[in-house]
Specification:
By secondary structure, this protein is of the alpha/beta class. It has two domains: 200 residues, Rossmann fold; 173 residues, 3-Layer(aba) Sandwich (Rossmann fold), CATH 3.40.50. It is 40% helix and 14% strand. It is built from 15 helices and 13 strands. A seven-stranded parallel beta sheet has the order 3-2-1-4-5-6-7, sandwiched between helices. A three-stranded parallel beta sheet has the order 8-9-10, sandwiched between helices. A three-stranded parallel beta sheet has the order 11-12-13, sandwiched between helices.
């Protein structure tokens, strides 16, 4: 059985890339097809990814593709349709915004699509950039999105079996594609795979206190610095309360976020997994203010370290966080509502073991078992 993996692009490392990495672990001999790679954007994760067998499309030859990939998304269908999958029995696409599911296969080839979400920009969901704010991008977006919605629906009909990363995304697949799907939650394994190495690192360097985060003295945000993530809410809330906040991630909103931050707000940029483990272990709680999140791996990662979540109540996060038990929800995308959520959490006694137990439902072990059963049992 010959299997191929397909991913939208490799220009950053987030939840979708963690899924791809585990798919690669399950089927290590499967080549990975993608539109383009940006080693610099992948940061410390490039050291692992560069060892994979990755095949890029002709998009890789376009100058500055990692900067202009979004305006050129009307070309994305041609990137993926240019690949030849005639030698493969199974193709598994991992996709959200760049139409990897539009690949063309033989009738005998089975196409499984792991859908992180239908493209958010096409269906009215908040995106990483507020493209409606500028008159030129707004006009361009409305024109091109109409054509891409038609293509996106057509591409969805090429898929044999859809896998949704949450019940929220399952509803979107049914609504926009008129297709059924099976929910298999993404793998969360950070605590398991790095706990011992993190402990060893901490013990080795415990005397260098200036290099270690001060335990239980700060709140943590992890994720892209994008418009849809509402990071500004976390910044303004901790400013009002006089708390510290550490921000992990990068993105187009970083400059504007830095302008509203004070000295209690620390931007750490991209960090490797070992650093991220330390930050999770030593934080008070994780703030997750994203709007209409598809699934949200970060809250589950935090819970796997016994840490509670303060999350905006919408999207996939309502499937993972138990209000009052593993965290709290705030109900409006406002600073006042988030401040209320932080104050509410501070009055609760969250049991770390309950957080870890809840995170275990979304483990890598469960993901691997279900994906292997799905593919192998069908074939």
């Amino acid at each position: 059985m010959k299997i191929a993996l397909v991913h939208d692009f490799l220009k950053e490392y987030g939840g979708a890339e963690r899924v791809l990495e585990v798919l690669h672990e399950i089927w290590p001999n499967a080549p990975i097809f993608t539109s383009f790679i940006d080693p610099e954007g992948l940061g410390p994760h490039w050291e692992r990814i560069k060892k994979w067998h990755v095949i890029t499309s002709w998009a890789q030859k376009i100058p500055y593709i990692s900067q202009i990939y979004s305006p050129l998304r009307f070309l994305a269908p041609y990137f993926f349709e240019s690949f030849d999958f005639s030698d493969f029995d199974v193709v598994i696409t991992s996709t959200n915004a760049y139409y990897a599911k539009g690949i063309i296969t033989r009738p005998e080839t089975t196409h499984f699509c792991y859908c992180h979400t239908p493209p958010r920009s096409l269906y009215g969901y908040p995106t990483r950039m507020n493209w409606r704010k500028n008159v030129f991008t707004r006009i361009y977006g409305y024109l091109i999105n109409h054509l891409l919605r038609e293509y996106d629906f057509l591409a969805a009909q090429r898929v044999n079996y859809f896998i949704a990363n949450s019940e929220e995304v399952k509803k979107r697949i049914e609504k926009f594609y008129r297709r059924d799907s099976l929910v298999i939650y993404p793998p969360v394994d950070l605590a398991v795979s790095h706990s011992q190495s993190a402990i060893n690192k901490y013990n080795k360097n415990k005397e260098a206190k200036s290099q270690e985060p001060i335990a239980n003295s700060y709140y943590l945000y992890v994720g892209k610095l994008a418009a849809a993530k509402n990071v500004y809410l976390a910044i303004e809330a901790v400013k009002d309360l006089g708390f510290r906040l550490k921000i992990v991630g990068k993105g187009g909103e970083e400059d504007s976020l830095r302008k509203i931050a004070n000295l209690n707000i620390e931007f750490l940029g991209e960090v490797d997994d070992k650093q991220l483990v330390e930050l999770y272990k030593n934080c008070l709680a994780v703030i997750f203010p994203a709007a209409d999140e598809d699934f949200g791996i970060v809250p589950v990662e935090a819970m796997s370290f016994g840490k509670p979540i303060i999350a905006f109540k919408n999207g996939g996060v309502v499937e993972t966080v138990i209000n009052g038990k593993t965290g709290v929800f705030f109900t409006q995308p406002t600073v006042e509502s988030l401040v209320g959520g932080i104050k509410k959490l501070n009055k609760l006694k969250i049991n770390p073991d309950e957080c870890k137990k809840q995170a275990g439902k979304f483990s890598k072990k469960v993901f691997v078992k279900k994906m292997k059963e799905l593919v192998e049992n069908y074939l």
